[in-house]
Design a protein that fits this description.
about 70 residues, mainly alpha, about 0% strand
């Protein structure tokens, strides 16, 4: 049986992901750190956030190889 979370579960995960992303951006994101470190960390956080958001929306398990 296919066990997919419903709409509410996906929305909850996106809300939690958004809260975590906001916290990380405040601590390590754009404009934080010396010279380019804030820009680099902010870009890395953005890429990770986009991958996780796509994973939640599409239901793709990026860590499963087979």
């Amino acid at each position: 049986m296919d066990r997919r979370p419903g709409c509410i579960g996906g929305l909850f995960r996106l809300a939690v992901l958004n809260a975590v992303y906001d916290w990380f951006q405040e601590q390590f994101g754009f404009g934080r750190g010396a010279s380019c470190t804030g820009m680099g960390c902010g870009l890395i956080l953005l890429i990770i956030f986009l991958l996780m958001a796509c994973s939640i929306v599409t239901g793709t398990d990026w860590l499963r190889l087979f």
